[in-house]
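TL;DR need structure tokens for one chain.
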Amino acid sequence: MNMRYGMLPLAGLVVTLGAWSCTKAPEPQTAAATSATSAAAAPAPAEDVEATIIQLEKDWVAAIEKKDTATLDRLLADDFAGTSPTAHTYTKTNAIQEIKDAKYIVDKMDLDEASVNVYGTTAVSFTSQEEKSKYDGKDISGHYHFTDVWVKKDGRWQVVASHGTRYDKSATGEGAKRK
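>> reply
TL;DR here they are.
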């Protein structure tokens, strides 16, 4: 017997079984299985990164005012690098220690403007603030602008870099708002 013709009955069986399986009605699912499938298929709600970063900026300001070093520890990345308005560089450890040691004392800090540009898991925030503060016993109160870089690490946002500058509104004749 020729092998090609001997395979015909087997091929017919495979085609018949395949057609039958396509017409078979799906088995009913339980309500729990249906909702689990729907939940898995539904897209996750999009994070409003701009609002999140602005809130984190507000949390940072509040933590400095309240001398809340636990919140500062959570917000600042371990590899954080900052540059103060007086051009001094500082690390996360320095920033927290200066709050603990009362070297940097903030009586009041008002964040009056904040905007954010988002680049995937990186965000750059621009803030403007008025503060009543002292550093190493000297009054450093004034208006400041900061540029902060936030990175989403392990599902949470942390600030990795900050650069501040003093803003003298009277010298330029302009208000605090950027155009």
